[in-house]
Amino acid sequence: MIINSSRKAFEVLRKKVNFLQEEVWLLTLDANLKLMEIDLIFRGTVNECVIHPRDLVRTVCSRNASAFLLAHNHPSGRVQPSREDKIVTQKIVKVSRLLEVPMQDHLIFSAEKYFSFADKGMYFPMSLYKN
Which of 45, 57, 106, 117 could potentially form a cystine with 122 if both were Cys, beta carbons 3.0 to 4.6 Å apart? Predict the structure, then answer.
């Protein structure tokens, strides 16, 4: 499956998530944006989940990914990014640039809707998405 839009990523992810607590998911992609793996990398509480770039990088590198997409759910149903969501996204974008493995997007989603940092033009001016 090719993940070339936030909508496709959302459709894949919402079938896997436990919406009772925050979960952070990583989609690793090959050079053609073909989905390689979907990994649950962190599980938190009902309203927070710590994301550490080190653990994300370990998974991206072990999968030999050419690109990746980060996503997490908000059990509250609100998908607007928090201040912390924006900060962690900036950190991970910087790390991805250093590694030269592009982060395509960071999705925040509920069962019915999602927010895409890439679709909003935040941090991803060179996204490979072809919307």
Answer: 117
Is there a domain that residue 102 lies in? Answer: yes
Q: Give the range of the structural domain holding residue 108, as residue numbers without chain letter.
A: 6-116
Q: At what angle do helices 53-62 and 83-99 cross, to 10 degrees?
A: 40
pLDDT, one tens digit for every residue, the chain (131 residues)? 999 999 999 999 988 877 788 899 999 999 999 999 999 998 866 666 778 889 899 999 999 999 999 999 998 899 999 999 999 999 999 999 999 999 999 999 998 999 999 999 887 654 555 54
CA pair distance 45, 64, nearest whole angstrom: 30
123 domain residue, yes or no: no
Q: Tell me the pTM.
A: 0.89
